[in-house]
C-alpha cells in the first residue's frame, strides 16, 4: 500500500503532469510573469465557474480577507464579527486593520457561526460579519444574510475551505459558496481544494464598485495610472500559479467528488460508533470536504493522533486552541464561558487524511486503525 498522507499533492500532480509542465514552460518562455494573459484568463474562467461578476486575484487568502475589509471602508474601532473556531488569518486581519474583532461561538453540528449568538452580539458599531465555511460546508447563509440585511451590515465570506460548494436558499435559488455576501474570499494555498503550487488567493463580488476598489487596493491603491487616491497593498497572483490554476479549475468538480467519495467511505465505516461523531451534512449546502473532521466522545484526541501516527496514519487537530484565548486576539469582552462549543470542539475534534487520491485500501486501513483505538476504550 502506498504511504498515507494527509494531502497527496504529488499523486494529484502525476495525473495532470504533462499539461501542468507545458503550462509552466509556456509562461517561462513568454516571460509574462506578472499580470500576464494567464492571470486574466484564469480570472474569467473562475468568474464563469462561480457565476459571479468579478473575480480579483491576489497573493493569498489572508490578503484577500484584508483587502475585502479595506474595500468596505471600515474605521478603527468598528466591530467585525467572526467565528472563534477558524484558522487564525480570519481574525488576524481584523486586528491588523485596527478593527475590533467580536468572536462568537459556533453551532455544534456545522462548526460555523451560531446564529442565535450572532444576533446577540450586534451593536450599533457592528459593520461586518465574516462567516467561515469551515471544512468545506457553507455556514447558514440564509440566516446570516437576513441578520445582515436587517442591521445593514456587510458580509464577507471566508471561502478558503469551501470553493466549489453550493448553497440552496429556501426559495430554491442555488449559489456557489463565496458569491452570496458582499465579498467572498478564497485561498489557493497548495492543500486547499483548488490549490496552486505556491501562494495565491482571490476575492469575488457582484458589486461593481467594490470590485473596482479591490482592484485598486491590490495594486497599491492606484486609481488612474500613478495617482493614488487611497492606501493599498501589493498583492498579486503570479502568472505561473494562474496557469496551473486554469488546469486545476477544470478538475475542481471531480476533485470535490473524489473527496465526497472518501467522506462517504468514512461515514459508513464509523456509522453507529458511540465514540465518534461523523460530520453533519446540512441539507442546504453541498460539502467540499476540505477536511473530514470527527468529534471524539470519551477518547483523548491527542492519544489517538499518536496511536495513528505509529501506524502510519496522519491525523491532524484542526483547531486545538480557541482564538478567544490567544494573546494576539483576546479582548476583555471575550469570556471563556461564552464559547462552550468551541472549547469542547478544540478538546475533541480530529481530522483524517482527505484528498483526491485516497484508495479504498488506504481508507480501509485508516478506518480500521481508528476503530482499533476507539474500541479499546
Ligand atoms: C487557508 C485559510 C486562510 C488563509 O489563506 P492563505 O492563502 O494561507 O493566506 C484563511 N482562512 C481560512 C479559513 C483558511 O483555511
Give the strand order, joined by hyphens, for the main sheet: 1-9-8-5-4-2-3
Helix-strand category: alpha/beta
Domain count: the total is: 2
Secondary-structure arrangement, i.e. CATH architecture of the largest domain: 3-Layer(aba) Sandwich
Shape from CA axes? Answer: globular
Assess the beta-strand content as a share of residues: 5-15%
- Top CATH class of the largest domain: Alpha Beta
Unreliable stretches (pLDDT < 50, length at least 5) are: none
Distance between the termini: 28 Å
Overall mean pLDDT stands at: 97
Give the topology string: H per helix, E per strand.
HHEHEHEHEHEEEEEHHEEHHEH
Question: What is the C-alpha radius of gyration, as a whole number of Å?
Answer: 21 Å
Extended strand count = 12
Could you say which small molecules are bound to this protein?
pyridoxal-5'-phosphate
Question: Largest sheet, described in full?
Answer: 7 strands, mixed
Amino acid at each position: 500500500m502506498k504511504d498515507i498522507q494527509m494531502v497527496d499533492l504529488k499523486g494529484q500532480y502525476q495525473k495532470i503532469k504533462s499539461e501542468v509542465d507545458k503550462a509552466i514552460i509556456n509562461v517561462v518562455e513568454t516571460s509574462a510573469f506578472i499580470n500576464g494573459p494567464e492571470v486574466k484568463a484564469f480570472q474569467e474562467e473562475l468568474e464563469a465557474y462561480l457565476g459571479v461578476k468579478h473575480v480579483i486575484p491576489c497573493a493569498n487568502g489572508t490578503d484577500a480577507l484584508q483587502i475585502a475589509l479595506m474595500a468596505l471602508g471600515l474605521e478603527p474601532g468598528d466591530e467585525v464579527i467572526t467565528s472563534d473556531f477558524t484558522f487564525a488569518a480570519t481574525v488576524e486581519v481584523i486586528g491588523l486593520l485596527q478593527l475590533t474583532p467580536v468572536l462568537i461561538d459556533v453551532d455544534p453540528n456545522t462548526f460555523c457561526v451560531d446564529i442565535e449568538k450572532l444576533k446577540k452580539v450586534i451593536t450599533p458599531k457592528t459593520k461586518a460579519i465574516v462567516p467561515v465555511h469551515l471544512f468545506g460546508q457553507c455556514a447558514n447563509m440564509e440566516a446570516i444574510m437576513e441578520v445582515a440585511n436587517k442591521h445593514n451590515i456587510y458580509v464577507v465570506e471566508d471561502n478558503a475551505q469551501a470553493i466549489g460548494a453550493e448553497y440552496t436558499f429556501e426559495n430554491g435559488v442555488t449559489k456557489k459558496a463565496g458569491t452570496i455576501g458582499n465579498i467572498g474570499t478564497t485561498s489557493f494555498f497548495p492543500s486547499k481544494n483548488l490549490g496552486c503550487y505556491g501562494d495565491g488567493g482571490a476575492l469575488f463580488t457582484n458589486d461593481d464598485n467594490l470590485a473596482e476598489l479591490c482592484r485598486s487596493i491590490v495594486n497599491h491603491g492606484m486609481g488612474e495610472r500613478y495617482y493614488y487616491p487611497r492606501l493599498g497593498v501589493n498583492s498579486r497572483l503570479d502568472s505561473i500559479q494562474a496557469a496551473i490554476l486554469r488546469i486545476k479549475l477544470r478538475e475542481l468538480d471531480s476533485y470535490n467528488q473524489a473527496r465526497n467519495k472518501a467522506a462517504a467511505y468514512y461515514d459508513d465505516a464509523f456509522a453507529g460508533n458511540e465514540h465518534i461523531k461523523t460530520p453533519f451534512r446540512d441539507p442546504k449546502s453541498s460539502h467540499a470536504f476540505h477536511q473530514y473532521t470527527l468529534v471524539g466522545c470519551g477518547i483523548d484526541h491527542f492519544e489517538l493522533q499518536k496511536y495513528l501516527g505509529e501506524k502510519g496514519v496522519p491525523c491532524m487537530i484542526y483547531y486545538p486552541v480557541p482564538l478567544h484565548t490567544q494573546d494576539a486576539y483576546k479582548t476583555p469582552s471575550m469570556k471563556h464561558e461564552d464559547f462552550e462549543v468551541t472549547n469542547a470542539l478544540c478538546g475533541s475534534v480530529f481530522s483524517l487524511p482527505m484528498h483526491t487520491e485516497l484508495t479504498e485500501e488506504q481508507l480501509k486501513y485508516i478506518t480500521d486503525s481508528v476503530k482499533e483505538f476507539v474500541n479499546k476504550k
